[in-house]
Amino acid sequence: MTKASSSPSTTATRNDSTSRRRGVLAAGAASLAALVWATTRKPAVAAANATVQGPVTIVPFDDAGVRLAPVSMAKVVKSDAEWQKQLDATEFVVARKEGTERPFSGSTWNLHDRGLYRCVCCGTPLFDSETKFESGTGWPSFWQPIAKENVAELSDRTFMMVRTAVACRRCDAHLGHVFDDGPKPTGLRYCMNSAAMKFVKRAV
User: Fold this and answer.
1) pLDDT averaged over consecutive 10-residue blocks of the chain (204 residues)?
2) Are 119 and 126 in contact (CB under 8 A)?
3) Which residues contact 115 (CB under 8 A, 6 or more apart)?
4) Catalytic residues
5) How many domains, in total, are found in the chain?
6) What is the rounded distance in angstroms from the CA atom of residue 132 to the CA atom of residue 130?
7) What CATH number is given to the structural domain containing 172?
8) Closest by CA position to 190, among listed 117, 122, 120, 85
9) Among 25, 76, 139, 200, which residue is least crowded by beta carbons within 10 Å?
10) C-alpha span between 27 and 11 (Å, rounded)
11) Is 81 contained in some domain?
């Protein structure tokens, strides 16, 4: 007796199912590879910023947004193991390994409360909600930092692009990048990662 062959529709269904499984496996493998790469590579921008040794001058602000007198503060330096104890997985990959959170996924891209954005690693004040604007990019965007002394801007040539990366001056945490397509008065767009900052709501 000759064995009946599968119908074209059955074969197509099997092929579609196999293709979907292969696609899921490939996507999973790619995501895992990206995570391993981000958590094991040596961050180029932070390494450049880390060349600044000794104390740095930071402008502190209280939680009401009042600017205080500049102070000289020691750089915050910790091992990866120490940062991983302090930060969650996303915060660590973004702030310490120069990762980027997915657009529209962060906790503050669509936040409209008044307050300060502080470094998630060391608490340095970075941005004020008064300079935040809707960029449509899915990341919290500002037209200027709260104090130029509190951030460092460095050349970033990763991924075959030339960009300007922004880092916390005191602890070298990667924050995001700055672009020249922002609104007045500066014309700049500081495109930051929510995971790199902790929002402190301003008391009314």
Assistant:
1) 46 46 42 43 51 83 95 96 98 97 96 97 98 97 98 82 92 97 97 98 81
2) yes
3) 63, 65, 129, 199, 200, 201, 202
4) 191
5) 1
6) 6
7) 2.170.150.20
8) 117
9) 25
10) 24
11) yes
